[in-house]
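Batch manifest, entry 17 of 40.
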Amino acid sequence: MLETLWLWFCRLFGRLLALLLILAGLAWALGELYYAWKFSGPVSSEEQIPPDEATLTRLIIEDAVRIVEQHRDNTRVLRDAHAKAHGCVKAEVQVLDDLDESLRHGVFSEPGHTWQAWMRLSNGNAYPQFDRARDARGMAIKLLEVPGEKLMKSPAHAGEQDFVMFNHPVFFVRDVAEYRSNFAAQADGKKVLAFLPSWDPRSWEIRHLIIALRTLAPAPESPVATTYNSIAPFKLGPHNIKYRVVPAPQHCPPYQLPEQNSALPNFLRNALYQQLSLDRAPACFELQVQRQNPQYYMPIEDTSVEWDEKIAPFESVARVSVPAQDFDSREQNLFCDNLSFNPWHALPEHRPIGGINRLRQAVYEAVSAYRHQRNAAP
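Output type: C-alpha cells
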C-alpha cells in the first residue's frame, strides 16, 4: 500500500515539475520576444532630459548623505559607494601610436602621448566588508596635468581627467527615476523593495533584479585581473561612446600570481601588494571605446541595456600600465581616501551624457564635499 502511494506521489510530483519547467520555459521565451521587440532600434543620439530630474536628484543626494552617515566608521565618513579601497597606485596611460584619426579627441588627440595617473581599485559596497563577499569591483583613473578648461570649474581639479568604471557591462537601474526609488529603499534598509516596490507586478523590476544579482559576483583573483566598464555613455569628440579597461597581460612580462588565501578579509589588497610590491611585476591593460550606432538599440538614457559588441565592437585607444611600486603605506592610503573621482572632471570632448551621468555630476560633488567637510580633509 505504501509503495503504491509513494509511486503515485512520485508520478504526480514529476508531472508537476515538468509542467512548471514548461511554464518557466514559455515565460522565458515570451520575455525574450518581448525584450527583442522593446529593445529594437533606432534610438536617439541626443540626450532626453525628463522634467522632474532635478527634483529627483535633490532627493537622491539626501539619501546618499543618509547612507554615508549609516556606514561611517568611528572617525571618518566614507564614500556612499566603493568605500573600501584595495589600493591607490600610480599608473601610466599611453595613447596608441597608430590610433585611428577619427578617435583622436581630448586626451587621445596626440598619438604616443603618455599621461601620468592615479588608479583607485575598490569594492562596490558602501560598507567595508570581507573581499570574499559577493560584490561589484571598481576602478577609477585620474589623469594628471591635463591642460584645457574642464566641465567642472573647481580649481582643485583643473588639471584632471577622470574615468570611473566597475566590473559589469550594465547597471541595475535604467534612469534617475528608478535610481531614486531603488536608492531610497536601500537607504531605508528595505533592499527587497528596491526591485519589488509594491504588490502590483507591473511595478516589479525582475530584469534589473537579475542584473543586480549578476553584479554581485565572486571576487576576482586580483583587482587587476578583471574588466571594468563605464556603464554610462560619454562623448568622444563627435561620437557617443562607452569605454572599458580590459587586462592585457600580453603587454607585460609573463607573471603568475601565487594562489591567495581568499578567507582573509583583505585578500584583494594582498594580491595587489604581492604582484606590485613583493614580486615587482607590473600590470597591463588596454583602454577601449565602443561607438554608438543609433540605428540599433544602443540607448543613451538607459544604462541597463548593453550595447551589442557584434554591431559596435570595442576599439583600443590607449595602453594602461601599472608599474611595480610600493603603495600600501598609511600616508598613501589616506591620500587615496581623500581623492575625489568624478566623470565630470573632464574635458568637453569627454562630456558625460545620459541621465545616470547627469545624476553623478550633482551627487558625486555633493557627497564628496560633505565627506571632506566632515573629515576635515583637504
